[in-house]
Write a structure and sequence with these properties.
mainly alpha, 2 domains, two-stranded antiparallel sheet
């Protein structure tokens, strides 16, 4: 059975886009190893950027491109960061410009991610994004495997939106590999105290 998040399923897309069916064409288009996830059509054109059940992410239901203006400027985070979760805003903007010939307006990016475009896309999104965008960033940071993100994620346990709290708890559990004894239903003040106690014990 073919996995739709791998290049083995690309024929579904290249049946209508035959110019991208060959390995050289795919490599030139994706700038990624053609045997890896970075060359899977769905990875970039229907990325996992929606809040799903069990506090995980699901794919867009519409096909688009991570270089589309409405996605670059209208829907945090920059989609390349879904896989490259430690990349800065500037690095990804520059890469988009170099690889696909798009011009990215840095001033518009600053309105979304803050003045320091060298901050990671995911951290900036979790700090400044709308709640659903923050949840996406939190989930991606939780899946990153980087224990250095524990403190960053834990600050969202007392988020104003209960659903984002649950995404943060799930992200912590993903990153630590075990249950996290924090109850997102507690009042924010008590929850912040519990987070500090838990963090100090890590």
């Amino acid at each position: 059975m073919k996995r739709f998040d791998s290049p083995s399923a690309n024929a579904t897309c290249t049946s209508c886009h035959p110019t991208l069916a060959s390995q050289p064409a795919l490599a030139a288009h994706t700038h990624h190893d053609t045997s890896g996830a970075g060359a899977a059509c769905l990875g970039c054109h229907m990325p996992k950027k929606n809040m799903g059940l069990e506090y995980g992410l699901t794919r867009y239901h519409r096909i688009g491109s991570p270089t589309d203006e409405e996605r670059v400027y209208g829907d945090r985070p920059l989609e390349c960061a879904l896989c490259h979760s430690d990349a800065s805003v500037e690095k990804l903007a520059r890469t988009i410009e170099q690889w696909w010939g798009k011009k990215i307006d840095r001033e518009r990016l600053k309105k979304l991610y803050g003045d320091d475009l060298n901050e990671s896309v995911m951290r900036a999104t979790s700090r400044l994004g709308k709640p659903h965008e923050q949840a996406v960033a939190i989930a991606v940071l939780g899946a990153s495997g980087r224990k250095t993100e524990l403190g960053w994620i834990s600050r969202h346990i007392a988020h104003d939106y209960p659903l984002v709290r649950y995404f943060a708890k799930h992200a912590l559990e993903t990153l630590t590999g075990g249950p996290v004894p924090l109850d997102p239903n507690q009042p924010a003040a008590r929850l912040r105290e519990a987070v500090e106690e838990w963090s100090a014990a890590q």
